[in-house]
Design brief:
Length: about 220
C-alpha cells in the first residue's frame, strides 16, 4: 500500500469534521498532497465516516484520476487536484457543507472581518467564490482565482459551501473549523445589528502577531 502514514493522517483528520459538527452523512472531505509527488490522498466516495481507515483512503493523481484504492475517490477530487496543481504552497484541502458557513454561501455574501479571532486566523474577510457546477474544473478554478494573493485560507463557493486550504492537511482542517465558528458567531451578531468590520490597520497587526509570534513558532500554526 502506498503512503500508509499519509493515509492514516488523512483518515484521522476526518474525525475533526464530526467532532466539530461540520458534516453529516458523507458530505465532506479532507485531502493531503503527497510531498514530492504529483499525487494526493483523499477520502473515498460514499464511505461513511465510521468506516474510514488508512486502507480505505485513496491515492489520486493531480488530474483527480484514481492511482490506488478500492473505492472511487471523492467526487470533489477534481477540485482538490486543481488547487494542488495551481497553488504549490498548499499541502492540504478541506471541503464541507458546514451549516453556518454554507448559509453565508447561500446568501452569496463575504463574511466581514469583524472579530479579533477572525483577524488572527484569516487576516481578511472570508470571500465568496463563484457559483460552479461539479463535473469540470470550474470549482477548482473558482477556489484558486478567489484565494490567490489573499490571506484568507477559506472561500465560500456561492450556493455550495466552504473550501479551505493549508500548508498542511491539519491546517486546512483548522481553517474549516474556525471558518464555521466565525460564520456562526457573526450570524448571531448580525441578528442583533449591523456588523462592523475591524479597521484594516488592526486586522494587519492582529494577523501579524498571531501568525508570527503567537505559539512561539516562526510560521504560526499555518
Ligand atoms: Zn460540496
Amino acid at each position: 500500500m502506498m503512503f500508509p502514514e499519509i493515509r492514516a493522517e488523512v483518515a484521522d483528520l476526518h474525525k475533526h469534521l464530526i467532532q466539530w459538527g461540520l458534516v453529516v452523512w458523507t458530505a465532506g472531505n479532507v485531502s493531503a498532497r503527497v510531498p514530492g509527488e504529483d499525487l494526493l490522498v483523499i477520502k473515498p466516495s460514499g464511505v461513511t465516516y465510521d468506516q474510514l481507515t488508512a486502507e480505505s483512503m485513496v491515492v489520486a493523481d493531480l488530474d483527480g484520476k484514481l492511482v490506488e484504492g478500492d473505492h472511487n475517490p471523492s467526487s470533489d477530487t477534481e477540485a482538490h487536484a486543481y488547487v494542488y496543481r495551481h497553488m504549490p504552497e498548499v499541502n492540504g484541502v478541506v471541503h464541507t457543507h458546514s451549516p453556518y458557513a454554507t448559509a453565508w454561501a447561500a446568501l452569496g455574501e463575504d463574511i466581514p472581518c469583524a472579530i479579533t479571532a477572525m483577524a488572527d486566523e484569516f487576516g481578511d474577510d472570508i470571500p465568496i467564490g463563484p457559483f460552479a457546477l461539479i463535473g469540470s474544473d470550474a470549482i477548482g478554478r473558482g477556489i484558486v482565482e478567489t484565494l490567490a494573493g489573499r490571506r484568507s485560507t477559506a472561500v465560500l463557493m456561492a450556493q455550495h459551501g466552504p473550501f479551505t486550504i493549508g500548508k498542511s492537511a491539519k491546517a486546512a482542517v483548522k481553517s474549516a473549523v474556525m471558518c464555521e465558528d466565525i460564520a456562526r458567531t457573526l450570524h448571531l451578531a448580525r441578528q442583533m445589528g449591523p456588523l462592523k468590520r475591524l479597521p484594516q490597520t488592526d486586522i494587519d497587526k492582529l494577523y501579524d502577531r498571531y501568525q508570527n509570534v503567537y505559539g512561539q513558532t516562526k510560521q504560526g500554526s499555518r
